[in-house]
Write a structure and sequence with these properties.
- By secondary structure, the chain is mostly helical.
- α2 packs across α9, α9 runs antiparallel to α10 and α14 packs antiparallel against α20.
- The longest helix has 36 residues.
- The N terminus is likely disordered.
Length: 458
């Protein structure tokens, strides 16, 4: 019998029922859990750092000037430094993620973030080693930011590339929902510590416990992620790249052939990114310095808001499947422009119920611009450069937006003693996103194979 005849008569293998490609709900849910596990771990650590910047680091790692605002400004400046390393991490992780797979690079980023966060909890204070304290802190922050650069793109793609076309907005938003879940976990830890320790104990050693607990969170996240594989569409793209050695990879192709989409992806993040960091990071400082709310009530308010945010994100993602990415996104960007004028006066009342409404409203608005972003970006770039493109857009935007938001906000408050300039800052951020998304094409329901085919034709 010839080889051709033998191949023709050989029975086709049964489909692998263990394949988590998303054809079965159980497989897709497992992929979502794996993506979220890492997101929860990494955002636990990120929110822990942001909250510690507002409450602790200004006292512990910098020379006292007698003005509490000065220490907070210095801590927020270091907070921004971590964002500078993110695009470089995004490019490196994205490049190799497009070559060898999403999962392997996601595991590596998770381990690096876990180690650096644990070491932050071990750092000596300024009183012990002087200026080496902020130097070591910024070094760890840069390494952590580098690893963070590869996390979001890989986690989102792990889910997006497994998802059905008509529900990609919903499923791809779940890794985004790992952000408030990680924040909830970090807030619970800080709330328990601050409630059971005196202010002196918390500033002296209590805050370190939250950083050390990151080791447990990372181990759990790593274990969950080890159970899934890359999507079939990525494996197909790998095979095509092996056959076509002339195809360029990485950031050069992204910028040369998809510069329009890159500008849209960066600009679209301004409203979401700036609003988010003002709500979850700067608001803590505003409530403590201006409204004079104690630390424990602030953390309790944030906990409630993050819990609600967890449910808002997939709801907004589903809405983008039903009515489109652009309408949901543009609505959120327009509402961002008005949040500050309403929310800061609400916080000024000092009434906890009014404050939680203000914070929750901000996170609800942010959900409309955050949840659709993952699906929109996935549907704009072909598979063979998608990790690089998504990581680059997602990580470059915060350098100009979220990384500076707490620092700009506290500087405006310190200079004008009013929340109005901060509200106007949000108006400018919203305008940039409205313009960017206005140039985007509607992608809801689009097949990723169609995206690949269109890119190949170009």
């Amino acid at each position: 019998m010839t080889a051709l005849e033998n191949a023709a008569t050989t029975p086709k293998p049964e489909p692998d029922l263990r394949d988590p490609a998303g054809s079965r709900p159980s497989g897709l849910r497992r992929v979502v859990a794996a993506a979220m596990a890492g997101a929860v771990a990494e955002w636990y650590e990120f929110f822990l750092y942001g909250t510690a910047s507002a409450l602790v680091f200004g006292h512990v790692f910098f020379r006292s000037s007698g003005n509490a605002v000065d220490g907070i400004i210095a801590a927020f400046a270091l907070y921004a430094v971590g964002f500078l390393a993110r695009p470089f991490g995004g490019l490196l992780f994205g490049h190799f993620g497009d070559r060898v797979g999403r999962k392997a690079l996601l595991q590596l980023s998770l381990v690096i973030v876990g180690i650096t966060t644990f070491l932050m909890g071990c750092l000596p204070t300024f009183a012990a080693i002087g200026y080496w304290a902020p130097i070591l802190l910024v070094t760890l922050r840069l390494i952590q930011g580098f690893a963070f650069g590869g996390e979001w793109g890989g986690a989102v793609l792990l889910v997006s590339e497994h998802s059905p076309d008509d529900r990609r907005g919903f499923w791809a938003s779940w890794p985004q929902a790992g952000v408030p879940l990680g924040n909830v976990l970090a807030t619970v830890v800080l709330l328990v510590l601050s409630a059971n320790l005196s202010d002196e104990q918390f500033l002296s050693w209590g805050w370190r416990i939250g950083f050390w607990l990151s080791a447990v969170v990372v181990i759990v996240g790593y274990w969950v992620r080890s159970s899934v594989d890359d999507a079939p569409i990525f494996q197909e793209a790998q095979a095509r790249m092996e056959a076509d050695r002339s195809r360029s990879l990485g950031i050069l192709e992204v910028l040369r052939r998809h510069w329009r989409e890159v500008l849209i992806g960066i600009g679209a993040r301004f409203a979401e990114n700036i609003l988010y960091y003002i709500v979850v990071t700067f608001s803590i400082t505003y409530l403590k310095l201006v409204v004079e709310v104690d630390t424990a009530p602030i953390l309790a308010l944030m906990l409630a808001a993050h819990l609600l945010h967890f449910f808002m994100i997939p709801a907004a993602g589903l809405l983008s499947d039903l009515i489109g990415r652009r309408p949901v996104y543009l609505t959120g960007a327009v509402l961002t422009a008005g949040w500050g004028f309403l929310a800061f006066p609400m916080m000024d009342t000092g009434n906890y119920a009014v404050i939680i409404v203000a914070i929750t409203l901000g996170l609800a608005i942010e959900s409309l611009t955050y949840a659709p972003y993952s699906a929109l970006m996935t549907e704009m770039f072909p598979t063979h450069i998608r990790y690089t493109a998504l990581s680059f857009c997602y990580q470059v935007a915060p350098i100009l937006a979220g990384s500076l938001a707490p620092l700009i906000a506290i500087s405006l408050l310190n200079g004008f003693h009013s929340s109005i300039p901060i509200s106007l800052y949000l108006v400018a951020a919203a305008a940039i996103s409205v313009i960017a998304v206005g140039f985007a094409k509607e992608t809801a329901g689009k097949s990723l194979r169609t995206v690949d085919a269109e890119a190949a034709e170009r």
